[in-house]
Amino acid sequence: MYRKVSDSTVRRLSLYLRILEDVEDPRGTVSSEDLADQAGTTAAQVRKDLSLFGSFGKRGLGYLVPELSGRLRQILGLDREWRVALVGAGRIGAALFEYPGFRSRGFEIVAVLDHDPAKIGERWGNVTIEDVAHMEEVFAETATQILIMAVPARAVQELVDRAVAAGVRAVLNFAPAQVKVSQDVALKDVNVVMELEALSFTLSQGREGR
Amino acid sequence: MYRKVSDSTVRRLSLYLRILEDVEDPRGTVSSEDLADQAGTTAAQVRKDLSLFGSFGKRGLGYLVPELSGRLRQILGLDREWRVALVGAGRIGAALFEYPGFRSRGFEIVAVLDHDPAKIGERWGNVTIEDVAHMEEVFAETATQILIMAVPARAVQELVDRAVAAGVRAVLNFAPAQVKVSQDVALKDVNVVMELEALSFTLSQGREGR
After folding, report:
1. Which of 168-187 (A) contact B at CB < 8 A?
2. Contact criterion met (CB below 8 Å) for B178 and A34
3. Do B143 and B103 share a domain, yes or no?
4. End-to-end CA distance of chain A, in Å?
5. Which residues, including other chains, have CB under 8 Å from residue A47's CB and lie 6 or more apart?
6. Helices and strands of chain A, counted as H and E runs
7. Number of independent structural domains in chain B
8. Can you tell me the ipTM of this complex?
9. Neighbours of B210 (CB within 10 A)
């Protein structure tokens, strides 16, 4: 139904939801102009994004905040809990595990896996770190839906292949490697060094271009 | 000179560099087909991306790995050191500070700042955590060029405004807020929860669409 929605539209929907959650009057209304201004886009873009998912708001009255935020949560799949497994219990994995923003959005880390014998068996919150060798069993037991990969680049593809074979259909990858998945698997990459490189590119461009 | 290069092109250049650094024969050649295959794109796209920056490679011979990787480093501004300040010494800040991939790419964290009196004065590697109240002096002393913001959403805009007023022209933002900067400032956002939301959107879409 929503097949053709672009990544940038989905990102703006997430942003609109954050703006709505932060308005002064959570039972009031907002205009597409307000949303656009805070999201750094145009009112026409806001209306276009929202119109993909039905009819919202009333001409001249704007959008009811509780109604629109409820609908955005539903569209984004945030009206339910998602069961997330974290593979890699190193520094990045630990920072992600403790990140308060996950649970409040319904992303529950139900399993942590690593290959390091010194870490396996360690307790993190309600979770015991499991051996990544038993990944498939852990995913089945915990009914994992989303995988977060916080492992070194060389390890990530093989582990993702195993997870996909075990039925996982969504992967958030922190390893600095291009992971290949089949079309029915959703994949997102977070690569902090590549973001820094985009900044250094822009700074260098200024240096060469001026 | 490079003004019109898109974000996605810059991202692919970073990716090509990673692929070149990982080839079996670091003194050999690669074809645009090899690069495309590993980068998940087409050979035509590889050639188009590289042609923006001059002429590379020889027909039928491909690209010389050392030459192309050297040129990519230059284009991306990685042929020099960048002086980075980290604002926010919490969990995410700590994980970023210890991330081994920064220094190897020339991103040197020269200052860490926080507002928490319990953290100010603490030693992290070669750096002493400074009071964010003295941000401007610290940036001047350390000749900061790139700012990493790992602070709560409510604090980020004011701190970025101060940093920009103090001359910083590149910001990598980890706070879950839309930061506004003038056009001469480069800004990148890393928002892990929004990436998870994009995955939950896709998973939900499957649920509604099938």
Report:
1. 169-172, 176-178, 180, 186
2. no
3. yes
4. 48
5. A32
6. 9, 9
7. 2
8. 0.91
9. 6
Domain boundary among A31, A51, A75: A75
Residue B2 to residue B21: CA distance in whole angstroms: 24
Residues A112 and A184 in one domain: yes
Do A121 and A22 lie in one domain? The reply is no
Nearest CA to A146 out of A92, A110, A117, A180 is that of: A110
Residues A163 and A121 in one domain: yes
> Which class for A2: exposed (0-12), middle (13-18), buried (19 or more C-beta within 10 A)?
middle
- The pLDDT, as a whole number, for residue B100 is 76
Do residues B118 and B57 both lie within one domain? Answer: no
Whether A207 is in a domain gets the answer no
Q: Which residues of A touch B205 (CB under 8 A)?
A: 1-3, 5, 77
**Backbone phi, psi, residue A158, to 5°:** -60, -40
Judging contacts by C-beta atoms under 8 Å, the chain B residues touching residue A35 are none
Q: A204-208, B117-121, B176-180: which has the highest mean pLDDT? A: B117-121
Give the one of B96, B198, B208 whose C-beta lies nearest to A11's C-beta: B198
Over the stretch A72-91, which tens digit does the pLDDT of each residue have? 999 999 999 999 999 999 98
Q: How would you label B41-70 residue by residue, b for 16+ Cβ within 10 Å and e otherwise? A: beeebbeebbeebeebbeeeebbbbeebbe
Statement to judge: residues A69 and A96 lie in one domain: no
Q: Are residues A70 and A107 in the same domain?
A: no
Specify whether B63 is located in the same domain as B135.
Answer: no
- pLDDT at residue A115 greater than cutoff 90: yes
Q: Which of residues 91-130 of B touch A (CB under 8 A)?
A: 91-92, 94-96, 98-99, 101-102, 105-107
Structural domain that includes position B70: 7-75
Decide if B204 is inside a domain. Answer: no
In angstroms, the CA A156 to CA A152 distance is 7
CATH number, domain of A28, equals 1.10.10.10
> Minimal Cα–Cα distance from A56 to chain B, Å?
19
Distance, CA of A80 to CA of B200 (rounded, Å): 10
Q: Which residue from B127, B132, B159, B164 is spatially nearest to B145, judged by alpha carbons?
A: B164
Answer yes or no: is B25 within a domain.
Answer: yes
